[in-house]
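ok, trying the design again with the full structure, not the truncated one.
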């Protein structure tokens, strides 16, 4: 068995793991959404399904990119295969970016304003004595 054959098998293994992640993730997302649906209602259940399965899709895409990368670099390192890999990575990057915006509801460059340290600092300023519970108008 040659090195190229071994790397082809490794790439196929990554693809199998990617498919398993998608299938198990879909089932897990459906179970979680059903539990949320029963306890909190349909709207929250649907949101839980979208957010959970969106994360699963992102993970699956990353695994498939790894499989393509292994196959291109180790098995068929031709200019044509590298160009195809570049196109695949570009498409999957756009899909990942779109899914992340769909899950978070904001673009990545605006995420810091709605979560993390920025949100905590804004909440702390709003709750300072003398602010009347209102946010600081000079904050971003």
């Amino acid at each position: 068995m040659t090195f190229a054959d071994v790397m082809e098998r490794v790439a196929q293994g990554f693809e199998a793991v990617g498919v398993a992640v998608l299938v198990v993730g879909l089932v897990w997302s459906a179970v979680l959404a059903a539990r949320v649906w029963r306890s909190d209602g349909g709207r929250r259940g649907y949101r839980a399904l979208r957010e959970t399965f969106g994360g699963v899709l992102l993970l699956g895409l990353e695994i498939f990119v790894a499989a393509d990368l292994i196959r291109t670099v180790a098995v068929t390192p031709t200019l044509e295969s590298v160009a195809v890999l570049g196109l695949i990575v570009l498409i999957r990057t756009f899909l990942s970016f779109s899914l992340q915006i769909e899950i978070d509801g904001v673009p990545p460059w605006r995420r810091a304003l709605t979560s993390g340290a920025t949100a905590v600092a804004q909440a702390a300023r709003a709750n300072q004595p003398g602010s009347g519970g209102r946010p600081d108008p000079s904050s971003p």
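Keeping the full-length input from now on. The mean pLDDT is 83.
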